[in-house]
Amino acid sequence: MFVLAIDTSNTTLSVALVENNEILIEVVEATKNDHSKRLMPTIEALFKKVNRTPKELDLIAVAEGPGSYTGVRIGVTVAKTLAWTLNKPLVGVSSLEILARNIKEDAYIIPLFDARRQTVFAGVYEGASSNVVISDGHYELQGLLDNLSKSEKKMYFLGNDVARYWDLIESVLGDKVIKVEDENLNMPHASVLANLALEKTPVDNIHHFTPKYHRLPEAEMNWMLEQKNKGL
Length: 232
Fold this sequence. Notes:
The protein has seven helices and ten strands.
């Protein structure tokens, strides 16, 4: 199974070509949110380096969110376009689940992306089994931590946004929480996405496939709040 995997859901750009669980080539790099300019040239360069063509693909996998609205949308749009034009199956995978798979310890793995205003996109996974403990969603961080404090499990928080909330996380969870210092583990890897996609069912209709933002865009949220305050 020859898979192209794309993750542009946050500041990291990761693209991989994986065949039969073997990584042929992979790019994982921090960017300046210029995925729209870099994604297609990166994909083209990877195919050239391994002397393969997109027509040989068996599957296209993409990080479907949550994360940056723009980043998720770019990855999903490119993946849908390729899947449609090449007539290949498409699989969407949670951006949080991709990150969670970086650690396989017998502990809770909590991938986390900042969603501003003391809220986060997060999920809780069992590291040894990869089972979902708390579904991906948009959470108030304090409430999530209070919920996790009831467990005696060791916990790993993953993601580049963890640092800004580390003091709060540690103050609530104490010595149950383990800080992941390895930068590589805090970044998503498209090769992980590719192998995860093999466990999933391809989308039924490529044209109907949409990102999973887990939250309304801020402008829409503000508009709804404004209407509510007006009594509309």
